[in-house]
Amino acid sequence: MSVHDSATVESTRRRLNRKQAETVDRLTAAAMDLLRREGFDNLTMRMVATAAGVGTATAYTYFSSKDHLVAEVMWRHLRQTEPPSYTEDQNTAARAITALRRITFLLGDQPEMAKAVTSALLGTDPDVAHLRFRIGLEIRRWIDDALGADSDPDTVEALELLYSGALLRAGMGYASYTETADLIQKTAILLLRSTDRP
User: Fold this and answer.
1) pLDDT grade, residue 66 (50/70/90)?
2) Ramachandran angles phi, psi of 129, nearest 5°
3) What is the pTM of this model?
């Protein structure tokens, strides 16, 4: 799936034509680059607009706030990441752990981006809430696929809570992403122990 076939064509605020989608691409790419260099606290919409070669007013046409912009970056990053493939010898717990580790490390090598996403997704902006819902659905889909057709909804929800809580903890700086992934794995094994073991 190409970028323009997925999240780029449809903004969280409006439908986009090709030229508008390219503008949004530039804004999200500029935001990612600036977050790596400047950090979330120093980021402004004006900085992003300048780096993307558009006016600040144009940037606000597509994104209501920097939280909205960062949430969109996360959404695109998630949508453009291929879910893991599983081998026949992997049981339910092993597949779930593989999926959760992959999602955990989406931003694990980019601490400033991870901090930004944590802050942005906790925002009250309605556009952020919309993206938070879409991101949650995508993560649920990954977990559902890992657990298989007979997945228990309560188990899926427990793994979702495990992931979101662990990522919040990492985003707040209490643990590295490697430590967080290991904690998720350990806890997932406990949750899934009644089914099988990896």
Assistant:
1) very high
2) -60, -40
3) 0.79
